[in-house]
Amino acid sequence: MPGPAVDVHTHLVPKGWPELAAACGGTDWPWLRIDSERAAMIMVGETEFRPVGPPAWDPAVRRTDMDADGIDLQVVSPTPVFFAYDRPADQAVKVARIFNDLTLETLAGDERFVPFCQVPLQDPDAACAELDRCLAAGHVGVEIGNHVGDKDLDDAGIVAFLAHCAEVGAPVLVHPWDMPGGPRLDRWMARWLAGMPAETHLSLLAMTLGGAFDRLPSSLRICFAHGGGSFAFWLGRLDNAWHRRGDAVRGRSVHAPSHYLDRFVVDTVVFDEAPLRLLVDTLGEDRVLVGSDYPYPLGERPAGKVVRTADFLSDGQRHKLLSANALRYLGRPG
């Protein structure tokens, strides 16, 4: 029998949270402006960040949309604007606890939802402690941003946190965030259209050329959102540079980037059959999982559409992308 269809990349925004300046210290925290029963705006200070509605906070609406899309399980992760990596660690610990607890309260133990927590990644010890607390409380894995300021995923502290994730069996979702702005990137949502793929590509460079995969156990289950950015497309260029300009490119890596393709998985938020084929051809049919970026408007609806309609996939491959690969990533029996 076919297994459950799984969407590994969705987000949640609780409907309301404590006033964060009072609860955590600091200023200019995100807050939720409620415009009506069905409309709200995430604010950062006095700046509008993103409109949200019931799909972001109402499990009943999520279940209805999942049924319409043919999705049985949803991995539900934080919205990255709440990560607070740029704040003092004690503030980031407090905000992580607030949103992690609200996530469990919102999802109310519904087995169709697989909650992922957030952690104060700027403090690896505190991040490990918060992950352990969340796993004990009911979270299954963790979503992290792809960098902490100028520290990328090959930073010693972040590698130590990822090693802890492997040790405790927590799957990791890496999500791009905090993309640079400026006149060329503040038009047309270019930070999302160009910045997000570039950030993810850069983080996979850090994992490979920075030697992070060489230092981490192969048991780490780590997924890169948005199809891994542009990494698969430029893999040939990366290997060519590693071999021909090793003096400048190799960094701490033992092998060329293509050697590490079996160390991570990516989601299918690429929207079209051609890039999906590239992912399957490059990474392999066991390394690609359905993701949608639900409930945001730049996500895929129906979730999994590109996988279900791709002519090049066999029935067996389609089953892997819709179900088996995600269950293995989550550490569940297939």
Summarize the structure.
This protein has 334 residues and is of the alpha/beta class. The protein contains 13 helices and 11 strands.
Q: What would the keywords be for this entry?
A:
Amidohydro-rel; alpha/beta; 8-stranded parallel beta sheet; 11 strands; EC 4.1.1.45; 3-stranded antiparallel beta sheet; zinc; TIM Barrel; 13 helices; 334 residues; metal ion binding
Q: What would you say the CATH architecture is? A: Alpha-Beta Barrel
- From the N-terminal CA to the C-terminal CA, the straight-line distance is 10 Å
Largest sheet: 8 strands, parallel
**Relative helix content:** 40-55%
Which H/E pattern describes the elements?
EHEEEHHEHEHEHEHHEHHEHEHH
The gyration radius over C-alpha positions equals 19 Å
Task: Please give the number of β-strands.
Answer: 11
Please write the CATH class name: Alpha Beta
Total of DSSP H or I helical runs spanning 4+ residues: 13
Physical arrangement of strands within the biggest beta sheet: 1-5-6-7-8-9-10-11
